[in-house]
Amino acid sequence: MNQKAGILEKDYIIATDLDGTLLDHHTYRFNKAMPALEYCDNAQVPIIFNTSKTFAETERLCKTLNNNHPFIIENGSALYVPKHYFARELEVNIPRFDAGAYWLYKFGLNRSEILSRLTTFKAQHTYQYWGFNSMSNRDLCRVTGLSLEQAASAQERQFSEPLLWQDKVEKLAAFVKHLQLFGLNVIKGGRFVHVLGQSNKAKPLTFLKEMYELNSDNQQTLIALGDSDNDKDMLNCADIAIVIASPVHENPIIEQHPHLIRSRYQGPDGWNDSILTLLQDNA
After folding, report:
1. Coil, helix or strand for 48?
2. Is 272 helix (H, G, I), strand (E, B) or coil?
3. Entry's InterPro entries (predicted)?
4. Residue 283 in this model has a pLDDT that exceeds 80
5. Does the structure show a pLDDT above 90 at 91?
6. Would you say 240 and 85 are in contact if contact means Cβ atoms under 8 Å apart?
7. What are phi and psi of 180, to 5 degrees?
8. Strand, coil or helix: what is 37?
């Protein structure tokens, strides 16, 4: 297979955020991205979901789209790799667990530890927020527009605690600094503020890219797509970063990226247009 010189080569990996990027921010539908999804499937380009969603939510979408590739959940807290997906694996100190049909690589803290630290934190501070742990499934439905079944899956957190920020916007920076003293990281998503361990969307993705390269004779070109601040690390670590326009918030600020693309359209429309334009023009 001939390869083009420069950044655009024949072997691609696509890593994508879900809500507001591949999925419509309001309806959670992906149908407008189907032409590009089918193009990638036919071209054997793996699509890696890199999301704030839970394992249950992400695996369900994988099955819906017949996507049998690895995926990253809860803002980089864990990577799930289907067993027998890679013939060779990297020798690293990342904790790995048997998770049925998958190998689970753990990059974050357990939710129980996060909740314990948040309880201690809340006793010392007066910030106003509403955590998933305090919400019923019906509460979550009202906040997000999810169905009851979808809300139940969203509640199955393993490595993070999303918060609905109810305080003044200008207090958020101080909140982040104070939580860092408790060994917790805070990442702002499209709807929620996510509290997790010292992980982000880039760490497992960089590891996964190395796994692909270990199992290939070719260097991989990583394309990442996202629309929110919690996607910045993922976008910055990619060879090609695509910022998807959002109907509800400003785009994340990406500085000095050598191959930065901004979508012409929002959500899955932008996803579809950006991927088809990029891959078809360089086929």
Report:
1. strand
2. helix
3. HAD-like_sf, HAD-SF-IIB-MPGP, HAD-SF_hydro_IIB, HAD_sf
4. no
5. no
6. no
7. -60, -30
8. helix
Rounded to 5 degrees, φ, ψ at 133 are -65, -25
For residue range 211-255, list pLDDT tens digits in order: 999 999 888 999 999 998 889 999 999 999 999 998 888 888 888
Tokens at residue 107, please?
Answer: 């990059």
What are residue 98's DSSP bridge partners?
Answer: 103
- Tell me the residue length of the chain: 283
Kindly report the pTM of this predicted structure: 0.90
* 252-271: pLDDT as tens digits: 888 889 999 999 999 999 99
162 by Cβ neighbours in 10 Å (0-12 / 13-18 / 19+) ranks as buried
Instruction: List the one residue out of 185, 259, 189, 269 whose CA is nearest residue 224.
Output: 259
Where does 149-196 show beta strands of DSSP type E? 160-165, 185-188, 193-196
The domains located in the chain, with CATH, are: 12-108+200-281 (3.40.50.1000), 111-196 (3.30.980.20)
pLDDT of the residue at 217: 86
